[in-house]
Amino acid sequence: MTQFRSSRSEMSLGLFLLGAGHHIAAWRLPEAPPNAAVSFPHYQAIAAEAEAAKFDAIFFADSASVRDFGISPIDRDERSIRLEPLTLLSALAVSTDRIGLIATASTTYNEPYNLARRFASLDLLSGGRAGWNLVTSANAQDGPNFSLEAHPEHGVRYDRAHEFEEVVRGLWHSWEGEDAFPLDKTGGQIFRPEALHPLNHKGAHFAVRGPLSVPPSAQGHPVIIQAGASEAGRDTAARTAEVVFAAHQSFDEAFAFYQDVKRRLAAYGRAPEDLKILPGVSPFIGRTRAEAQASFDELQDLVTPEVGLKLLQPFAGGLDLRDYDLDGPLPDLPVTTNAIGRQKLLVDLARRENLTIRQLYLHIAGARGHWQLIGTASEIAGELEHYFKNGAADGFNIMPPALQRSLGPITELLLPELRRRGLFRKDYTGTTLREHLGLRRPDLPAFPQFAA
Amino acid sequence: MTQFRSSRSEMSLGLFLLGAGHHIAAWRLPEAPPNAAVSFPHYQAIAAEAEAAKFDAIFFADSASVRDFGISPIDRDERSIRLEPLTLLSALAVSTDRIGLIATASTTYNEPYNLARRFASLDLLSGGRAGWNLVTSANAQDGPNFSLEAHPEHGVRYDRAHEFEEVVRGLWHSWEGEDAFPLDKTGGQIFRPEALHPLNHKGAHFAVRGPLSVPPSAQGHPVIIQAGASEAGRDTAARTAEVVFAAHQSFDEAFAFYQDVKRRLAAYGRAPEDLKILPGVSPFIGRTRAEAQASFDELQDLVTPEVGLKLLQPFAGGLDLRDYDLDGPLPDLPVTTNAIGRQKLLVDLARRENLTIRQLYLHIAGARGHWQLIGTASEIAGELEHYFKNGAADGFNIMPPALQRSLGPITELLLPELRRRGLFRKDYTGTTLREHLGLRRPDLPAFPQFAA
């Protein structure tokens, strides 16, 4: 059987931003701004560093509610407060020039015309740097903020998501023809009328006439990203995604996922390079392994049991883990209807490594079930190279545990080491997110954005 | 009977931005960027000029469809294409420091939780400069982009809008207590749990639990603006708006509207200064009146009949005006279920001034039914002063006919003349939009946005 691996010599690297960092206690470090979760100056400084380091993109997750409101201590988790990601990225578009801008937006609680328009607007004004991380809302607490008693089931959400994506993509393709935009003052014509056509979509969830009022960007339309690990998620990704943010604990898992998803592409008439797979990885880097370990331990010591249990709550399937011995084994969890894929990852991990409840929450305190590496830059670069060269990754979505502490070692130790190995760019060669990622530009006319 | 007039000595001035300008032919002028409608550099340059001139705010209208698609020649109207206003304003928040940022967003085709979150995010990241122009979608063509066969009736839209506003305001008030945000690293607490409460709204249109995940801004929450001129619109404004963008053709109309809306406030326990009324005005300014008239005539000459008729189409109640003699009188129009208030303004104007169809579309080509002034800076300042001092306005929403041509005379001739008369600020005295407008800050804790 064909074995797939990256067709490029250099990997893609995204930087996943989340408040003071991915480690739940990051905001408590002395060097962290305690208001990082909603501080624009904080994100602005980090985005500038990320661009100087030539990352492909910065990325924001999202949640349309205060997570665990009424369930666990929200006042001790900086993730209870956040800025809406598209608003934030639109602002960061102005303080950056080249880096890609990826925002999560849910198909469960939005209208496709609104989202298509907002992402197309960000894409046009940023010069073709936008990406949409398409998710179904996994958080059951979002429902009651949108006039729903019950959060829709996994299957219904995926069905809606599929049609939602079709509509958004269709709206982005409202424009056609090389000479679509004459911008002719003398003749009084902005665009050729035949360049703009309606969508006339009628489906089970949506009826959308179109066309879209935003012209295409320098990269055509925003890059479509997905993150689902479930069977439905993998299939949706193979059909429509251009990037997949994956979550794995081991090379074998990552390899199996990579090969499976790449293999599914052919059925949809797509080539392996039409979809990039970027596993998440949270690196603790030190000049020595001991230094890296000390940095990790300092953060772990700041995790209190109440905050630790809060991390497990979304995957507990309704069970209150406070009723169990923290130093005993994880009980069998009722299957959640929400984050099925993430729950399975977690339970597999606990069983495989025989973790207590405390060990489990400490294990995910840094990267919420994503891959975590503690070591020197050389050790970590070696791991990433292994994945990249052997069919487990096209690059990585880097999840810094604590931004003010981790970003320095990433840009000053890890990236130079990857560059020495010829695995990461020295400078941008393109201007759009698609160019950074090595993705094809869709066949759409570009609006002459900077003509005078 | 009490006569109301502005309680402040200086007027508020908003700058209403729309592509190359409000005159439908503005983009065809030699100095205009033909891509202005969707050009971020264009808007960035104009916003910088507006801030240097100390305007209270810049303002964007919106429409969630390509207007008149399939009805009239969309390729000849730059308003067929546009950027989504909140996306655009989030970007402009970064390239400006002090000026207010007002975006239109519809209550007809959005979810209140999403809008509350986006405006609160813009408000927080801009340091308290956001304003929400709350509208019901008057454009029947928006409906088919949102899975609706028929655009909801005027009454239903107002009813939904009223509840929508209640929910958004309620979500913005999710936070309470002076010391709501300890940001205490040592104790591990971001905010006091009792500072955050759910909304638990249950109404005819929405059920929204809350709370909102975005903390309050420097000005508490965004300023709420409305523009409805109908009976329902006036009442909604008196109940909830902090600013009203009005549309009038004469002092008498403006005076009657101002007095009526200010008088309605008491019934809702509000003081006259809790709501500011800013009529729209489109000034053609010259060093002489002849120069102003020449500038106006040049633009009018660029309006072709097909584009002119397009301007009337939204108010024609379904009648195709191409079937009528352009140089004959306006026929009786079937009442539109959409823009009732604006249709009435237009018909009243045509009847009062005995205009032909051609004269009518030329009349609104510059300002779409808003007040238009052609004259010297001194003449125009005199008019504005008359309105401001005699109970017809708290300030104005300036609608430049052609930005590249009109903004210079506005900032270099008109504003200095207003300053000589003591009617407009020399510099900002506050940092938030509420401070610019002289509006009370709601009783909400401010998040320590810039603490290190």
Distance between the first and last residues' Cα of chain A? 54 Å
Helix content of chain A: 25-40%
Low-confidence regions of chain A: none
Total number of beta strands of chain A: 11
CATH architecture level-2 label of chain A: Alpha-Beta Barrel
Report on the architecture of this protein.
The structure is a homodimer of 452-residue chains. By secondary structure, chain A is an alpha/beta fold. Chain A has a single domain (12-286, 371-437), classed as Alpha-Beta Barrel (TIM Barrel). Helices cover 35% and strands 12% of the residues of chain A. The first copy, chain A, is built from 13 helices and eleven strands. Chain A has helices at residues 40-52, 85-95, 112-125, 154-172, 231-240, 251-264, 289-300, 305-312, 340-352, 357-365, 377-389, 403-420, 433-437; strands at 12-17, 57-60, 100-106, 130-135, 201-202, 207-208, 223-226, 243-246, 276-286, 371-376, 395-398. The first copy, chain A, has an eight-stranded parallel beta barrel, surrounded by eight helices. In chain A, strands 5-6 form a two-stranded antiparallel ribbon. In chain A, helix 3 (112-125) links the parallel strand 3 and strand 4. At the A-B interface, helix 1, helix 2, helix 3 and strand 6 of A face helix 1, helix 2, helix 3 and strand 6 of B.
